[in-house]
Amino acid sequence: MIRHTARAPWRAATAAGIAAVALVALSACTSGMESSGSGSTPAAGGTNDGPLTIALLQKQGDQQYFIDEANGAKQAAEAAGDVTVNVVDLGTDSNKAISEVEAAIAQQVDGIIIVVPDQQIGPQVIQLANDAGIPIMAADDTIEDGAGNAAPFAGFDGTSMGEQVGAEAASLYQKAGWTAADTRILSAYKEDLSVCQQRVDGAASAFSKAVADGPEVIKVGTDNSATDAQDKAGAVITANSGVKHWIVWGCNDENETGVVTALQNSGVAPADIIGVGLGAYLTCKDWKAGQDTGNKAALFISGVEVGKSAVDSMVALLRDGTALPPQSIANTEIVDASNWESKGVVCT
């Protein structure tokens, strides 16, 4: 452990935020982190080459993406040497998130990485960490302090992700030769989560740019789980029984695969569904099994690389005084049944 009283320069940098965008380069892998710009200037202060403990607090830690992220964080810790990552599953409980931040502070961890269940708790968790002199960064979902300054972040560009999904859906729609009159788009996501809004807005924007007078978009509010997406989609499908063809996208693979499952369970043939997932960790299951499926493609995102990026950044701060980058953005790529394995998607 290092003494938290020595962290004042890092704490100030975290609280104030940084206006410029710095991207971290991790690897040449297509799912790795992409670098752009010159990066951050090392912060002033001492270095620490002793044991480090980092708390990784994740919402919905039982989802495959977040399991991958935790594994990536542990891999980075092992590579750094003498670094322990304590992973905590917050579920969807904001109160638990706050109490776990307090617990991490009481345990005198050296750094905190958090995926918040609700972005509204950002000011509180940042203030708790800052008051304790412990650096904090967000992963996957951005958070801000009470003054509106963003915490350092590791994750994805939500709008760009959505645009890739929407462009792929538009291409598949055009190839299918469907018409807007007998087609509907189901867009499933957690409506109060900004990154989800960015993703589905990006998808809708890219689709509309590629397809003039496209199908109606029907929004399906979910909690971002496959079960809830399947349940919520059921009523929408019933209310639109005359629709012949369906396009599906969402905030994550859980949403897209849940809706596709609901469609298929209602009797819609896979040939009449164009589902484009976001993650590939669930869409790949049908491809791996060789099943005829409405899950036609997915945007491959790697939780492993986000976990690695976050821990590498935190270790660099703690050991070398290198300021946390404002944003570390991971690469993404469209995959389908023909190439998911060669692109590195791991289907568990």
UniProtKB/TrEMBL annotation:
<dbReference type="GO" id="GO:0030288">
    <property type="term" value="C:outer membrane-bounded periplasmic space"/>
</dbReference>
<dbReference type="Pfam" id="PF13407">
    <property type="entry name" value="Peripla_BP_4"/>
</dbReference>
<dbReference type="InterPro" id="IPR050555">
    <property type="entry name" value="Bact_Solute-Bind_Prot2"/>
</dbReference>
<dbReference type="InterPro" id="IPR026266">
    <property type="entry name" value="AraF"/>
</dbReference>
<dbReference type="GO" id="GO:0042882">
    <property type="term" value="P:L-arabinose transmembrane transport"/>
</dbReference>
<protein>
    <submittedName>
        <fullName>Sugar ABC transporter substrate-binding protein</fullName>
    </submittedName>
</protein>
<comment type="similarity">
    <text>Belongs to the bacterial solute-binding protein 2 family.</text>
</comment>
<dbReference type="InterPro" id="IPR025997">
    <property type="entry name" value="SBP_2_dom"/>
</dbReference>
<dbReference type="InterPro" id="IPR028082">
    <property type="entry name" value="Peripla_BP_I"/>
</dbReference>
<dbReference type="GO" id="GO:0030246">
    <property type="term" value="F:carbohydrate binding"/>
</dbReference>
